[in-house]
Amino acid sequence: MASPDPPPATSYSPPDVPLGVSLFLTIPYAFFLPELFFAFMTTLLYILHAFSIYYH
After folding, report:
1. Which residues contact 23 (CB under 8 A, 6 or more apart)?
2. Which parts pass through the membrane (predicted)?
3. Total-model pTM
4. Are 21 and 33 in contact (CB under 8 A)?
5. What is the phi/psi pair of residue 7, to 5°?
6. CA 49 to CA 47: how far, in whole Å?
7. What 8-state DSSP symbol labels residue 11?
8. Which among 20, 32, 40, 44 would be 20 to 30 A from 50, CA to CA?
9. Rounded to an integer, what distance in angstroms lies between the CA atom of residue 16 and that of residue 26?
10. Can you count the helices (H) and strands (E) in the chain?
11. Is there a contact between 12 and 18 (Cβ–Cβ < 8 Å)?
């Protein structure tokens, strides 16, 4: 038989809106941030390759 006492209340409850690092681990950012990173790296490599022609 179940006890009549309710479970003790906890003082911790996670926030409804994620804050800090957990914000960047949500689904949209999980796809968006790597896209920005690889786009930046690809652009950087293209620029460095273009300038490397002049320094042979």
Report:
1. 29
2. 20-48
3. 0.45
4. no
5. -65, 150
6. 5
7. S
8. 32
9. 13
10. 2, 0
11. no
